[in-house]
Design a protein that fits this description.
iron ion binding, mainly alpha, globular, two-stranded parallel sheet, delta7-sterol 5(6)-desaturase activity
């Protein structure tokens, strides 16, 4: 984040905001700047990519599902807007440690003996390391001792939209992001790669709430996409992973997505509409039990 901090200071904060007597490396000034930049960046990422996903990827037929809540989209947005500033506070403290030089982030490819190979390997290890920790953190948040207080607010959305991607209890949201921040304190990582991965992680989080299941056939057994995560919201104790199905398979919590089997929530809505059309009375679907709430686990 020191790259972002330097740019923000050079073009905005130093010439226009802070007094000349306040040095750029002052820890309090850095904390304030990081708090502003982190929140601004989070809101831009959230609204820009969630809006794109909502209008161009998300299938709006899902909004006709019986478990789609009244005014759900506005409620998801309100929840996210209220939560993100609180999530940013502990996040900024970790960013501050990075900026002050306590992490293993580096600038140049030549600083390590394996150069580009090490950079590519660090991306892969980042993904697998964070996926592993998020799996166990996420699964832990489903424990009965903490679920109702921390994670249940995110499970209000049984049929989530991309705007639900950041609609967490603040502590829940921070805990699930913690592996991303832990990694560069343990393993070397290029600063630009770290920033890029941080952005991509937020985009991925939005994408797995988009209700669209466009996973290439070859990758379906391995990638934990929106189909898996939709079932997680519906069925509660399956598919905790973030990117991959590996840890769900190891932990015995993997469930093949219902949409891959033709009985997901979108299939239910389409079948409901078809039966309504065929019956001309709208009553032909009343006894349908695909994802109408009877298959979801009581939380």
């Amino acid at each position: 984040m020191d790259l972002v901090l330097s740019i923000a200071d050079y073009y905005f904060f130093t010439p226009y905001i802070y007094p000349a007597t306040w040095p750029e490396d002052n820890i309090f000034r850095q904390a304030i700047t990081l708090l502003i930049v982190t929140n601004l960046g989070a809101f831009i990422l959230y609204f820009f990519f969630a809006t794109l996903s909502y209008y161009f990827v998300y299938d709006h037929l899902l909004m006709k599902h019986p478990q789609f809540l009244k005014n759900q989209v506005s409620r998801e947005i309100t929840h996210s807007v209220q939560s993100m500033p609180w999530m940013s506070i502990p996040t900024v403290l970790l960013f501050l440690l990075e900026v002050r030089g306590y992490s293993r982030l580096y600038d140049g490819i030549g600083e390590f003996p394996y150069g580009w190979f090490q950079l590519v390997a660090s991306v892969l290890s980042f993904l697998f390391f964070t996926d592993m920790l998020i799996y166990w953190i996420h699964r832990g948040l489903h424990h009965k001792l903490v679920y109702k207080r921390l994670h249940k607010p995110h499970h209000i959305w049984k049929i989530p939209t991309p705007f639900a991607s950041h609609a967490f209890h603040p502590l829940d949201g921070f805990l699930q992001s913690l592996p991303y921040h832990i990694y560069p304190f343990i393993f070397p990582l290029h600063k630009v790669v770290y920033l890029s991965l941080y952005i991509l992680v937020n985009i991925w989080t939005i994408s797995i709430h988009d209700g669209d299941f466009r996973v290439p056939q070859l990758l379906k057994p391995f990638i934990n996409g929106s189909a898996h995560h939709t079932d997680h919201h519906m069925l509660f104790d399956y598919n905790y992973g973030q990117y991959f199905t590996l840890w769900d398979r190891i932990g015995g919590s993997f469930r093949n997505p219902s949409s891959f089997e033709g009985n997901g929530p979108l299939n239910y809505v389409k079948k409901m509409a078809e039966e309504k059309h065929n019956s001309h009375g709208g009553n032909g679907y009343k006894n349908e039990k695909l994802f109408n709430g009877e298959r979801t686990k009581t939380e």
